[in-house]
Amino acid sequence: MTQPKFTLHTRRPRRPVRWDGPGAAFLYMVVSYGVALVALYFAVRAFPGFLEVLKHGRPSW
Fold this sequence. Notes:
Order of helices and strands: HH
Helix content: 40-55%
Distance between the termini: 72 Å
Strand content: under 5%
């Protein structure tokens, strides 16, 4: 046990991180949906009539 179990830099990584696999598209989709939901949440918080415009296409005022 001379070498620690978790090191910051390993000589031979088990799996290199690749951003072109099938999981990358899913991860990109999840992140983009999350960002869109957060942006929508802040838009509704900033403008109270924003959700009504999204629902009906026109504000009530």
